[in-house]
UniProtKB/TrEMBL annotation:
<dbReference type="InterPro" id="IPR004007">
    <property type="entry name" value="DhaL_dom"/>
</dbReference>
<feature type="region of interest" description="Disordered">
    <location>
        <begin position="211"/>
        <end position="240"/>
    </location>
</feature>
<dbReference type="GO" id="GO:0006071">
    <property type="term" value="P:glycerol metabolic process"/>
</dbReference>
<feature type="domain" description="DhaL">
    <location>
        <begin position="8"/>
        <end position="201"/>
    </location>
</feature>
<dbReference type="InterPro" id="IPR050270">
    <property type="entry name" value="DegV_domain_contain"/>
</dbReference>
<dbReference type="InterPro" id="IPR019986">
    <property type="entry name" value="YloV-like"/>
</dbReference>
<dbReference type="InterPro" id="IPR033470">
    <property type="entry name" value="FakA-like_C"/>
</dbReference>
<dbReference type="InterPro" id="IPR048394">
    <property type="entry name" value="FakA-like_M"/>
</dbReference>
<dbReference type="InterPro" id="IPR036117">
    <property type="entry name" value="DhaL_dom_sf"/>
</dbReference>
<dbReference type="GO" id="GO:0004371">
    <property type="term" value="F:glycerone kinase activity"/>
</dbReference>
<dbReference type="Pfam" id="PF02734">
    <property type="entry name" value="Dak2"/>
</dbReference>
<protein>
    <recommendedName>
        <fullName>DhaL domain-containing protein</fullName>
    </recommendedName>
</protein>
<dbReference type="Pfam" id="PF13684">
    <property type="entry name" value="FakA-like_C"/>
</dbReference>
<dbReference type="Pfam" id="PF21645">
    <property type="entry name" value="FakA-like_M"/>
</dbReference>
Length: 540
């Protein structure tokens, strides 16, 4: 029995929560009917919790930064979907109160839960009762009431919070018509209950005895028809048709406030959560919109959006996959890349002088004759284009997922883990995770004088860019390429993928450098890289 919540307990709680969410993911996905019935709440909560745990595990040798800070930053930067982003905000609220403080006892944790619930409400543009937020507040109120009733141990507080969350969850169908009509409790709130039960297990060593979540869909009016959320006759939502999510860097609170106001005009389910990172403050932005381009433009006006994700809001669960009807489509900019992806069994769209349009992507989806299609844009600018094409393809009965690859090397990493034997949604997630784990950089030539993050460049200068930001300016292609790789590998890596342009000597020089300076690195080289780019690199 723990008397205070120390650093080790925080890590144990996070691992226990991940295990609980993993076991219940499919049930939570089935319960998901609000704000849209897209069946991904369990998946998004799990991915967010896994991101928090991964941050803790990467930082296992930390000496100064509190576990709460590491966990909350990992959750915010890795949050997925509406429910995942609200969970990240709740964790950030806890971190704001507990990080850097002595191990929390019962009263301290109760106060932190209350403050965290309050900040979670502020992160949501239009908070609704009967949701994750109501369950969080119910948990916090019961924790505080336990303390006010008399001396309360840590075990007393976490048990009161978990029990309060369950009681609040049971009330959600009476608070939200969509839940009442479907005969289900709120999926996000149900996930939070599992997270709080993990708290109880961590503190007391005993797992709470609960009614299985699958049977809790019988809540609501006593005589209401009991219905599986998957069998509710869904209709396309009248509002926004796409979910847009991105991380925002290089911004400030004033710019974020303007972006928030603009996104509130464009759509709904808006959640914006900020967190401090070693390189400055960043924000996770989530919104449901009809105009994808306008949403992303609002982010660009506020700072530097990255890791942009665009997904159609699918009101109808996909039919059972049919064997042999899955396809991968990659957008490429050179014949060499087209051949490379084609050899991997991927259909390709080669950019012409006028680029690629959503009509081009839609035409290739239709031409594939596949029911399930994953699209690899391989360029940040093409992610929203692919997203719009995916929305239109869904209207034609296709199941389409956009893997947000921002470069060809990320596309190759995604292809490497594609598994047609896996459930389509899981396969898209696996490909997206592989792409996100691949850091990419490129060597280009400056076309005009400009001020970059590495200083001023002149026409003809050699630029080394990492993740789209210029970090090296020089005069020699090989020198800049080797410097760029050294910088990337200083942060770790086991394999480097080289996409070499027409200058084969450049590829030879880089390979020699890697062999000499980084002999442990596995090097994979392909000639015929992206058009107009002497060298592109991926590090995994």
């Amino acid at each position: 029995m723990l008397l205070a919540l120390d650093e080790a307990a925080v890590g144990h709680w996070c691992r226990t929560a991940v295990d609980a969410l993993s076991a219940a993911r499919s049930v939570l996905d089935e319960l998901n009917v609000f704000p849209v019935p897209d069946g991904d709440t369990g998946t998004n909560l799990l991915l967010t919790a896994q991101a928090a745990l991964a941050a803790l595990e990467r930082d296992a040798a930390r000496t100064t930064e509190p576990a709460w800070s590491v966990l909350s930053r990992g959750a915010v930067l890795g949050a997925r979907g509406n429910s995942g982003t609200i969970l990240a905000q709740l964790l950030r609220g806890l971190a704001d109160q507990l990080a850097g403080q002595p191990p929390a006892d019962g009263p301290t944790l109760a106060a932190a839960l209350q403050k965290a619930a309050e900040t979670a409400y502020t992160a949501v543009a239009d908070p609704e009762e009967g949701t994750f937020l109501s369950v969080a507040r119910g948990a916090a109120e019961c924790a505080v009431a336990q303390v006010e009733a008399g001396p309360a141990t840590l075990a007393d507080v976490v048990t009161a919070a978990a029990d309060g969350a369950r009681a609040a969850l049971d009330r959600t169908p009476g608070q939200l018509a969509a839940l009442r009509e479907a005969g289900v409790v709120d999926a996000g709130g149900a996930g939070l209950c599992l997270v709080l039960d993990a708290f109880v297990t961590t503190v007391t060593g005993v797992e709470p005895a609960r009614t299985p979540l699958a049977t809790r869909r019988e809540t609501g009016h006593r005589h209401a028809q009991r219905t599986d959320a998957r069998n509710v006759p869904h209709q396309p939502p009248p509002g926004p048709g796409s979910e847009v999510q991105f991380l925002l860097a290089d911004s400030d609170e004033e710019s974020v406030a303007r972006m928030h106001a603009r996104l509130a005009e464009l759509g709904d389910s808006l959640v914006v959560v900020g967190v401090d990172t070693p390189t400055g403050r960043e924000w996770n932005v989530h919104v449901h919109v009809s105009d994808i381009g306008a949403a992303i433009e609002a982010g660009i006006e506020a700072g530097r959006p990255y890791r942009v994700s665009v997904e159609p809001l699918a009101p109808v669960p996909p039919p059972a996959p049919v064997a042999g009807t899955r396809a991968l489509i990659a957008v490429v900019s050179s014949d060499g890349l087209a051949e490379l992806f084609a050899e991997a069994g991927v259909r390709v769209i080669t950019c012409g002088p006028d680029g690629v349009t959503e009509d081009d992507v839609l035409a290739e989806i239709v031409a594939s004759a596949a029911h399930e299609v994953a699209v690899l844009p391989n360029d940040s600018d093409l992610i929203p284009v692919a997203g719009r094409a995916a929305v239109r393809a869904r209207e034609l009965g296709r199941e389409v997922g956009v893997v947000p690859t921002r470069s060809p090397v990320q596309g190759l990493a995604a292809c490497a883990v594609a598994d047609p034997g896996r459930r389509f949604g899981d396969d898209v997630i696996a490909m997206a995770e592989a792409a996100a784990a691949t850091r990419w950089a490129e060597v280009t030539l400056a076309e005009q004088e400009a001020l970059t993050s590495a200083g001023r460049c002149q026409p003809g200068d050699v630029l080394g860019s990492a993740e789209g930001d210029v970090v090296v300016i020089g005069q020699d292609l090989a020198d800049v390429a080797c410097d760029l790789l050294d910088r990337m590998l200083s942060a770790g890596g086991e394999m480097a993928t080289l996409l070499v342009g027409p200058d084969e000597d450049l590829g030879d020089a880089v390979c020699r450098h890697l062999s000499s300076v980084h002999p442990a690195i596995e090097v994979v080289r392909y000639d015929g890289g992206p058009a107009g780019i002497p060298l592109q690199v991926g590090v995994e």
